[in-house]
Write a sequence for this structure.
């Protein structure tokens, strides 16, 4: 009996390890420069990846995994959103308090729209046909009509917004980092519907959604992912993730949830049911690979990373300096299913 039980445990452990190793590093895409980065956006419909990189957006062809273009002329980029049927893209430029609208085909800049202070997370909501730019310093969201580029309103929030998600059915969700909350917004009437606590999760950043099971996945700074009912706001469970997460993704085909962690791991979570989740063994990435995008057509995952040098001394102008990026070390890691 003991031998049988032991054998079963070994088989189970090997099964978990094999599933986690489903993803392996298949390539690296290098870029020039020493600028920082934030979010990535995978346009699976057209096979293009948009990567924030300092003052530029790098455009990568996901078929060849080769850079094909740049969108330039900005100050400090955070995120990118896409409206494919309008042939438009939207970039949050936190350094200029603006959203930049560009043409998806030519990648030419079409318009600059003023926002609140330091627009960070950005989202196109297909239900309302509006773009939501979440402003990290003014604690609000600037709402833009995607077709005309006109600002239609501002939604005040009770704290610092981070990453958003949409259910495409009349709800937009956003993590409130400094309050450890998630806010449910009405994209039609431009108001906050409800605010839910994410306790025991703290300082949520990345957010993903399972549209079918109506579950939200918030990754938090205290090494937890909160799984939230998108209708009631109840935290149905929490799962353990790595340290330093900044992005989450959900793969509906394989029912997997991902957390990219700055410590140099990718947490892979198997969705057994809407309320039950199994944490698999982590996939090794690289230290600093905290943001990612999932291509739902190929199941490949792209993560931004770089090497860091010394940290400058603190000063009155910069009391909390960050380590400098080694020039030419910024790149994307490509993780592919095997």
């Amino acid at each position: 009996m003991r031998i049988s039980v032991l054998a079963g445990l070994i088989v189970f452990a090997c099964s978990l390890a094999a599933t986690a190793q489903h993803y392996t590093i298949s390539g690296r895409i290098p870029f020039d420069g020493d600028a920082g980065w934030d979010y990535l956006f995978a346009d699976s419909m057209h096979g293009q990846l948009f990567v924030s990189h300092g003052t530029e957006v790098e455009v990568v062809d996901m078929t060849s995994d080769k850079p094909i273009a740049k969108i330039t002329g900005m100050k400090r980029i955070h995120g990118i959103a896409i409206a494919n049927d309008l042939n438009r893209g939207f970039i949050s430029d936190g350094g200029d308090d603006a959203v930049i609208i560009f043409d998806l085909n030519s990648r030419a800049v079409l318009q600059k729209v003023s926002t609140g202070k330091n627009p960070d997370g950005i989202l196109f909501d297909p239900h309302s046909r509006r773009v939501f730019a979440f402003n990290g310093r003014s604690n609000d969201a600037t709402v833009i009509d995607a077709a005309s580029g006109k600002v239609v309103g501002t939604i005040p929030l009770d704290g610092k917004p981070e990453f958003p998600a949409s259910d495409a059915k009349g709800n937009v969700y956003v993590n409130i980092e400094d309050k450890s909350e998630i806010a449910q917004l009405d994209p039609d009437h431009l108001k906050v519907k409800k605010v839910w606590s994410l306790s025991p999760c703290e300082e949520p950043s990345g957010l993903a959604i399972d549209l079918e099971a109506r579950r939200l996945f918030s990754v938090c700074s205290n090494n937890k992912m909160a799984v939230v009912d998108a209708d009631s706001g109840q935290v149905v469970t929490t799962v353990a993730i790595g340290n330093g997460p900044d992005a989450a993704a959900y793969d509906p085909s394989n029912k997997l949830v991902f957390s990219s962690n700055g410590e140099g791991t990718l947490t892979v979570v198997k969705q057994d049911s809407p309320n039950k989740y199994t944490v698999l063994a982590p996939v090794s990435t690289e230290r600093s690979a905290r943001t990612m995008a999932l291509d739902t057509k190929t199941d490949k995952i792209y993560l931004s990373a770089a090497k860091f040098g010394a940290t400058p001394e603190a000063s009155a102008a910069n009391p909390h300096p960050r380590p400098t990026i080694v020039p030419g070390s910024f790149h994307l890691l490509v993780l592919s299913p095997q």
